[in-house]
Amino acid sequence: TFWLDLEVELERKLEKALLKQKSELEAPQRSCGRFGCCCAWLRSILLYHFLPCDKSIFGKLKDPIFWILTLMSAIPTYGIRSGFFSILLFCIVFPMPPDEFQLVNFIIQLKGSQFFTVGFLQSLITGGTYFYCSS
Questions:
Q1: Which site among 5, 52, 75, 125 is 20 to 30 Å from 68 CA-CA?
Q2: Which of 100, 97, 113 is nearest to 50 (CA)?
Q3: For residue 27, what is the DSSP state?
Q4: Where are the alpha helices (DSSP H) in the chain?
Q5: Could you tell me the pTM of the whole model?
């Protein structure tokens, strides 16, 4: 009786899996509309060029769009850096739940750019201004 129960259970699970797969294939594809597809395209461009999953740092350095996005993240004036990281966070969080690695990577990059732009660059500018004034 054990083998008979096992056979019946396996047939039931297999049938359920096949029916689920068939219903997913027959489901109508959702059209995103003109605005939705444009936003998805821009989101994919931004995330792939700034946070690629298949490129090392050397691959990133060869990408001109990566350099443009990096420069945008390094300009602390006029809210450019804040706006850039706000848009980046919005792209990571929506339309699906974010991955924990993506959020941690975002926080590390935000804090790293904050240290570099507000801390290091501002201290160099202030030191240069002081040296120019005092001499």
A1: 125
A2: 113
A3: S
A4: 2-26, 33-50, 57-61, 64-73, 80-93, 100-114, 122-134
A5: 0.66
